[in-house]
Amino acid sequence: xxxxxxxxxxxxxxxxxxxxxxxxxxxxxxxxxxxxxxxxxxxxxxxxxxxxxxxxxxxxxxxxxxxxxxxxxxxxxxxxxxxxxxxxxxxxxxxxxxxxxxxxxxxxxxxxxxxxxxxxxxxxxxxxxxxxxxxxxxxxxxxxxxxxxxxxxxxxxxxxxxxxxxxxxxxxxxxxxxxxxxxxxxxxxxxxxxxxxxxxxxxxxxxxxxxxxxxxxxxxxxxxxxxxxxxxxxxxxxxxxxxxxxxxxxxxxxxxxxxxxxxxxxxxxxxxxxxxxxxxxxxxxxxxxxxxxxxxxxxxxxxxxxxxxxxxxxxxxxxxxxxxxxxxxxxxxxxxxxxxxxxxxxxxxxxxxxxxxxxxxxxxxxxxxxxxxxxxxxxxxxxxxxxxxxxxxxxxxxxxxxxxxxxxxxxxxxxxxxxxxxxxxxxxxxxxxxxxxxxxxxxxxxxxxxxxxxxxxxxxxxxxxxxxxxxxxxxxxxxxxxxxxxxxxxxxxxxxxxxxxxxxxxxxxxxxxxxxxxxxxxxxxxxxxxxxxxxxxxxxxxxxxxxxxxxxxxxxxxxxxxxxxx
Amino acid sequence: xxxxxxxxxxxxxxxxxxxxxxxxxxxxxxxxxxxxxxxxxxxxxxxxxxxxxxxxxxxxxxxxxxxxxxxxxxxxxxxxxxxxxxxxxxxxxxxxxxxxxxxxxxxxxxxxxxxxxxxxxxxxxxxxxxxxxxxxxxxxxxxxxxxxxxxxxxxxxxxxxxxxxxxxxxxxxxxxxxxxxxxxxxxxxxxxxxxxxxxxxxxxxxxxxxxxxxxxxxxxxxxxxxxxxxxxxxxxxxxxxxxxxxxxxxxxxxxxxx
Lengths: 566, 258
Hints:
Number of strands of chain B: 11
Helix content of chain B: 25-40%
Radius of gyration of chain A: 23 Å
Number of domains of chain A: 2
Oligomer: heterodimer
Number of helices of chain A: 17
Helix content of chain A: 25-40%
Strand order of the largest sheet of chain B: 9-8-7-10-6-1-4-5-11
CATH architecture of the largest domain in chain A: 2-Layer Sandwich
CATH topology of chain B: Rossmann fold
Structural class of chain B: alpha/beta
Distance between the termini of chain B: 53 Å
Largest sheet of chain A: 8 strands, mixed
Number of strands of chain A: 24
Number of helices of chain B: 8
């Protein structure tokens, strides 16, 4: 058994194996291949024996890939021009779309889709499937893909990032080494690219360590909760898109629902809830279950079967929340860099575009043997000049305008649209999501709000499911014999102030039922039970805990959900 | 001591199992993994190799993408692998699988053949015994301990009451149970080196197999029907207000369990 820590030297390391990293690694390997073929003809210097590695905490390609998803195909077309012929897993081209405003029993159809939500020519895709497909292309290009390896520490050499350390394996619940203990590997890289997705644990640490967010707004997030269903008969064309606003979210909460038609009579239904909500009793999983109770949804799903469940946060802070994307030794791409268009609800195109621009910058640096900070900084400039990011400028205040809920937000959005993105103040203020939560008494005017006031429902097990059932359908598992990967440093806060002010909202905001406050009836002793094995890696707790008292760190590699169609 | 380890790629135990309604064959388009029981066999082989020297060869029969499972065994530390893969083999039952594995095992020399107890998808547990029979060597199944002195094996075979110790000369076929060891994790270096290790993919022709003995048509067993298990019903929750013990006793009596 290895006891010494291995050191692995690579040229380019991608941390996180989602669409941003996979696209970037694919583009880079394509550029290198083309360069070498040309070099063979012209006698120029080849880039031989180049090692490009991707690490990911998920069990297999796409296992942690989840999105709505509607994809604008432009960047993918630039990356793989013949993506249709190459069998990219497209569920369907968007040819029909509608927007509804929902009340509890009724629906009002918008006469046309507002320009930002016009999806004609886009594709409905499954993120897990797209990642699987892309991983196959990478294998063929000789890129080293390491699944089940989580990055747990950024390695620095005097302010320069030199790589990442992966997590130890074979540590038991008490933190002791098991007989199969395998220490993590130190991966040293010429360039380290962080493509960890929304609220990446290392990216968060990196941004703080290098002060990359100086002058930027704090990031802001929404959490998406989603199920894929199989219907007994065709009821929605593959590629058909429906967006909803209104029910079941209370009017001071921003968010919306979606219904996307997939192949084989499958349908993706989900709801996004902005994490700047103030209600300590809000439960995004429950709100999504209520969404399915709307007659339109209930009819659509009637007789159908739940196939898969998942949840994930989405970075919606917009242009002003984007950190500095390059630094000595590396780059940040995709959702990890908050590159997401919250108004269009789109990030895949930005992830692919930023990944490709990163690849181009790295390739130029490899050819000229100059991977200095100055070279890498060209990436950040190129991202800023890309059409996708220019688009972000037009919607730079969109999310912040929605903080007070949908109604006021919509009028602000219209105003911003007319002013080309400006609001009355050009840059709306923003505070971190966790600071928006109000105390129970402040929100409800009583310390014991009724079930009706909260909006609780009973789950019927047919159309609506409890968290345990849904988590089962996410395929989430973790090696049980390991320390919990949700760190709660100060339990006194949980049993004291958090109980008093907020009634322990972690048990509600977590869409996977990880947090449970149990009371011993005999002694009255309360215990925060952390069911870490349920965790679907959405990161809501790391964002929304009102005392910032939960830290999400990666569990042993391979743990987490096992998405295949999300 | 040269060791062959027979492994199988199975559908992920976490994935919902689906059967193809015409053939009742398992839909293998879901996530697939190295059969969890086989990890113990690979680990045991590697430990024997580390203690006594020799080479570990992985033997597998399966579709082309079974290379993933084979690569995992190589990444753990096995030296080389043989994958028998051919469309003609699809639908083979346990007997046919044993025939194919035995033929593959005849193509190189070994002192021990190791198996996991059974596969998590087929669950027959018959293959190790059938392979031993076809190779004409002793079978020691369900082992929780393997000791080797020279060419003599001392093993513990698990039973309901405890274990029975056996002694046996090599060559032999062994199957090991979960818990005999703690399988190691493939390291990154292991994964990289696994890509360069020899993996010999053989088809039916290359092994000179008799095609009348393999595949769905030739299977000596037939699946007549299949159904999903009934979803588990919610349990009864007994609240202890002082009479908890009584309520549990009533429940057990009611269910005729006591």
